[in-house]
Amino acid sequence: MWRFVLTFLCLGLSVAVYGQRTVPSQKSDPFKIEAGKTFSASRPGHGPQPRQSFQKKTKLASDFSEAIRLISREHVNKIDLNDATKNAIGGMLSNLDPHSSYFDPGEYNNLLSDQRSEYFGIGASIANYSVNGRFDTYITSTFPDSPAFRKRLRFGDKILEVNGESMKGRSSYYVRNRVRGKMGTSVRLKIERAGAKTPFIVSIRRGRVPQPSISDAYIIRKGIGYIDLSHGFNYTTKREMDVAVSELRARGMNALILDLRDNTGGILEQAVRVTEMFVPKGRTIVSQKGRFSVDSRRWISKRRFPLQIPVVVLVNEETASASEIVAGALQDYDRAYVVGAQTFGKGLVQSVIDLPHGAGLTLTTAKYYTPLGRLIQRDYSGSSYDYFNHRQDTEVGSKVARRTAGGRIVYDADGITPDKEIETPKLTEEQQKLLDPLFHFSRMLVSGKVAGFENFRVFGQVDSPLVITESDIRINSTLEKAFLEFLSRRKEFDVDKRFARTQSDLIEERIRYHIISARYGNITARQVLLQYDPQFKAALKGLPMASQLATTSRVWSNASSK
Known about the structure:
By secondary structure, the protein is α+β, with helices and mostly antiparallel strands. It has three domains: 118-210, Pdz3 Domain (Roll); 216-425 and 538-561, 2-enoyl-CoA Hydratase, Chain A, domain 1, CATH 3.90.226.10; 429-532, no CATH class. Helices cover 33% and strands 22% of the residues. It is built from 16 helices and 25 strands. Strands 1, 3, 4, 17, 18, 21 and 22 form a seven-stranded mixed β-sheet that branches. Strands 13-14-15-19-20-25 form a six-stranded mixed β-sheet, sandwiched between helices. The longest helix has 24 residues, at 51-74. The two termini are 45 Å apart.
């Protein structure tokens, strides 16, 4: 039977572990899944199958079974039939499009649980940092009132073991999966704390940990609200937006920067409900067209009194799927000024299909379009590597141009082209090499183990202030010199010392980030990174244009509704 449940618009399994390095998921598709519906594989097809077609399928199925049998019996190596079959299904789906995938029972459970607004664990952010080329997993912050917070775990704690299993050299993704578990069960961690003589064991009872879409919302400057909606669209996103907007308006917000960077998608209905906060009733937000009529539909705004404040939307190359629907609709209606880098370009809808024995498929069944009829999907005729690494962008001159009601030109395909394009800042290879020693120096610093700088010692994470200003925790030249001396003593870090002396801005930014992470948590610490962020600075400069668009949008919207 069909089970119509929800629509996901995402790109692969998301990993709720944030840190220095992005830990790849176990799927080739790095984004969350977009699903038009969830249904059982036992459901009959859209129509009767011709007898000849059925016989052909039966022969192919027989050939497949015989091939598996022969491989198992005759191949020079011993073959795991489950792995062989899984790879065969995956290969078949990969020939269709980049986002149709097979999930074994464990992966399928992760796929579905990633759309929830919570998980069961200890409530700590973890990340990998390396010494001598071997990386280990460290706690970078704990969530307020979480099991980890109550056990006084803190920034810089190295996880040596989980339930007696060594975590040395393991990825933070692997460690995360060992730390999480069933509600109410306990996990034993062996922890090495910076400056402590010996490791210690802590037993923590797993609890329910919120996993919100909105990580932060605050007044960045007088009258300007900022909402970080980078963690995808889950079941609670619209409710979170309502709370954030209400609180910011109570603090005097009269303009908004909505940050959708790195938002790889999620539940379509939640993205639609967020969009309709700014789009008047009766307007199309997104349409979907499939091979069969059941897969074609439109989503219409039901909002009678939308917000009319100026809006800037921040996007980048990892803004995908459901978040592209939000950015595209607001751009089509001249309702927001879009700033940043061209988005990913995923306009395919996947149906999530239950298979027997707990496995599942995501199968592309439709394409979605913006209100102006723009197809956002990028070309995927080349290799998967080129597709997922943005190697196939189409030149603007070859794109189909459309005009908004306010007269702006917008383009089909290749995602959403921002109104103001600002390249996403990327660290050079040499700068990336500095990240490990900067973390390890900061770890010693907040433990009070850097001579002459004991005043930076942090005894534990506390409730954070609402806003971190540029004057909070300044890093002077003396502290920078202490880091460079640390670097010269620690030969295990493969860093050009002369190059390091030219990186004052990066040193200041990262040490401030780590200190504030230790004091207030890494969600608050992200405010530090914004202060150095060229895309965010461009968003602030774009607010006057957003104000003009808000006025224009009100004029044509009121005129067309009469």
